[in-house]
Amino acid sequence: MSDGNGSAPLLRLSGINTFYGEIHILTDLDLEVSEGELVCLLGGNASGKSTTLKTILGIVQPRSGRVEFAGEDVTHRSTSYRIGRGMAIVPENRRLFAPMTVLENLEMGGYLRPPGELKEGLERVYSLFPLLYDRRGQLAGTLSGGEQQMVAMGRALMSDPKLMLMDEPSMGLAPILVERSFEIIQQVHEAGVAVLVVEQNANVSLSIADRGYVLQTGRIVLADEARNLLQDENLRKAYLGR
């Protein structure tokens, strides 16, 4: 699938087979994200979602298959190389530097950028999340869960990524904060950043996504536009509880 103008997707996984020892985790996995697109990868526990993210980031190497990013084969490239090329990760449970201020956390996200571009990056983050400007001197560990999510996303944006990878953004958040978290993801998407959201919460993530994939025991079992997946009978029974 291309992005409509004939160009290759920003991210493409082709025929990925990933193992932990002799245990086959991902089987013949194909996945694409185009520039500026918001895609969700859905699946329950032990479905292979985390391994997919680790394969995209280069933390684990597939035994076969190919990872392409920004028109380049990065299958055997390091994680730091991929980050430098424009990937950014918002990890599960946010993983902020709790004893550091909001500003210091954001600056850590921009460590690969030339010093002269840090100010520009901060201005972009503060324009998206004005609250972070107000809290810039506050210790990150004293923020609420929703505020910490803003910092985690702001930190990722500081590297000026082409693709933001979100690992279970709703985990550990109260329902009202889950909704707010996905509003923030939508804001980032509308600012022109491609986003891949890895989630168990199908209902909320599909409501803001362009497309979705459903992963089950390491295989993609459904792939379609988000609005079609929301109506899919099998998906509704398995993930939406209705």
Major sheet, described briefly? 6 strands, mixed
Give the CATH architecture of the largest domain: 3-Layer(aba) Sandwich
CATH class of the largest domain: Alpha Beta
Instruction: Give me the secondary-structure category.
Output: alpha/beta
Kindly state the mean pLDDT as a whole number? 87
| Tally of strands | 10
The global form is globular
Oligomer: single chain
| CATH topology descriptor of the largest domain | Rossmann fold
Strand order of the largest sheet: 6-7-8-3-9-10
Give the helix tally. Answer: 10
Which H/E pattern describes the elements?
EEEHEEHEHHHHEHEHEEHH
CATH homologous superfamily designation of the largest domain: P-loop containing nucleotide triphosphate hydrolases
Number of domains: 2
The rounded Rg comes to: 18 Å
State the helical fraction: 25-40%
- Regions with little confidence, pLDDT below 50 for 5+ residues: 1-6
End-to-end span in angstroms?
30 Å
What is the secondary structure topology, with strand pairs?
Blueprint (H helix, E strand, L loop, with lengths): L10 E10 L2 E11 L4 E5 L6 H9 L6 E6 L2 E2 L5 H7 L1 E4 L11 H8 L8 H11 L1 H5 L10 H13 L5 E5 L7 H16 L3 E6 L2 H7 L2 E6 L2 E7 H6 L1 H8 L2
Parallel strand pairs: 3-8, 3-9, 6-7, 7-8
Antiparallel strand pairs: 1-2, 1-4, 4-5, 9-10
Helix pairs in contact: 3-6, 6-7
Structure write-up:
Helix 3 (102-109) packs parallel to helix 6 (145-157) and helix 6 packs parallel to helix 7. It contains 10 helices and 10 strands. The chain has helices at 49-57, 79-85, 102-109, 118-128, 130-134, 145-157, 175-190, 202-208, 226-231, 233-240, and strands at residues 11-20, 23-33, 38-42, 64-69, 72-73, 87-90, 163-167, 194-199, 211-216, 219-225. 42% of the residues are buried. The strands form 2 sheets. It has a 6-stranded mixed sheet, with helices on both faces. It has a 4-stranded antiparallel sheet with strand order 2-1-4-5, with helices on one face. It has 2 domains: 1-86 and 164-169 and 196-242, P-loop containing nucleotide triphosphate hydrolases (Rossmann fold, 3-Layer(aba) Sandwich); 87-160, no CATH class. It has 242 residues and is of the alpha/beta class. Strand 1 (11-20) and strand 2 (23-33) form a beta hairpin. The protein is 37% helix and 26% strand. The radius of gyration is 18 Å and the shape is globular.
